[in-house]
Amino acid sequence: MKKLTLNRTRQRNRKEAVWEDEHGFSLLEVLFAIVLLGVCFLFIVSMIYQNRQAIQLNKKKEEAIFVREDVKEWLGYKAQIQDIANLNAFVFVESSAAFTGEQMERRSHLILDNSGIQKESGTNKATYGELEMPLSDPDRGTFIRKINYHLTDSDFLPESLRSTVNQLYIGQYISHSGEETDFLVEVIVQRKAGLVDYNPRTDGVGLSIKVYDKKNGNLLTETYINWVAES
């Protein structure tokens, strides 16, 4: 009888032990698991977001490179090189006279469209002697525009690029369909040093073509070319 009672007691203890094992994790363990899962989830979301941002940035840079190469090729188009040079006559002025800060900035930038011509106050006269490029020609057809400047729109540029100089010399790239894009273009002129009787028209000037993101002002790409107006 005692032996039977002892066996029943042991069986009951075993059931209680099994019940305790099946009872599950403690509250602390459950909370720890939830926190761990949350951290892992945030990490995965962060990785997905960063990956998406990287893909978008790479795509944006690829598009900017296309813009850069398109402007570069357009500048080298022989049928219109002289037109662009006439639009930037002051860039080729060589004089020992002292230039003002505004004049130096003009000599240091190439504009690529009639919309970038600065006019004397109250007149239609070009401040720096620019000659407008013809919009059409009987022999060459319609002139292809690449850049549109917004000289009087103070909110045109993103905050990081906003300045008096940039307002004048950074323009918006125009797509082949004639629409303005989210890319900004600036062309900086660098004269050659160390040349005797240097003539920027025939000896050439260095052009740094820069492409910016219109949304945030970041520089996406740039290239350097030697540009000769007269061969």
Q: What are its keywords?
A:
single chain; 231 residues; alpha+beta; 5-stranded antiparallel sheet; two-stranded antiparallel ribbon; 7 strands
Helix and strand arrangement:
Layout: H1 2-22, H2 27-75, H3 78-87, H4 101-107, E1 136-137, E2 141-142, E3 147-148, H5 164-169, E4 170-174, E5 180-190, H6 200-203, E6 205-213, E7 219-227
Antiparallel strand pairs: 1-2, 3-4, 4-5, 5-6, 6-7
Note the run of SSEs as H and E: HHHHEEEHEEHEE
Query: Uncertain regions: pLDDT < 50 for 5+ in a row?
Result: 17-22
Shape descriptor: elongated
| Structural Rg | 34 Å
Helix/sheet category = alpha+beta
**Residue fraction in strands:** 15-25%
Arrangement of strands in the largest sheet: 3-4-5-6-7
Largest sheet, in brief, is: 5 strands, antiparallel
C-alpha end-to-end distance: 122 Å
Helix proportion of residues, in percent? Answer: 40-55%
Number of helices: 6
Mean pLDDT: 83
Number of strands: 7
